[in-house]
Structure of Peptidyl-tRNA hydrolase:
Amino acid sequence: MNTTAESNPTTGPWLVVGLGNPGDQYAGTRHNIGHMVVDELASRHGERWSRHKAGAAVVETRLRPGAPKIVLAKPASYMNLSGKPVSALVRFFSLTPEHLIVVHDELDIDFDTIRLKRGGGEGGHNGLKSISQSLGTRDYVRVRAGIGRPPGRMDVADYVLRPFGTTERKELPLHLDRCADAVESLIEDGMAAAQNRFH
């Protein structure tokens, strides 16, 4: 019998990392949508964040009684240095990369769209590059939360570090809710079922 994480999603624990930058000045920006998604997950389960020696804020929870433990995490480092705290958490909780889910902003898909994948390239995303380098593998799960591309000739760095626009902010709660649902589906149902539901 195949007992991989994907075919047997009840195994655990799982580490769910929401990428972003620390500090109030970045809290509502597009680059911090990963933080927003794990905040939504923590809120659903009535959990409060605590500091971990790995250099991250963490929450330990379960989707339901008897389900595998889930560790939600927000690295305290800047985005391009995410690898160090993430790899430290993977070691601390004795995880394999197959049980790591990284939630991040994605320029190459439209706002309010979600794409799920395991492995592959980083698409120029510095947070993913740092994680792949620190882990020595790209074989972890990504929840790609669409933010769309910048309008006109706006610089990409300026775009991702700006708050969501007025129209986007109206739709943002639903987008975050669906991203959180996608994380839970990955853990409960596996990659194929989650992709069928959210793609």
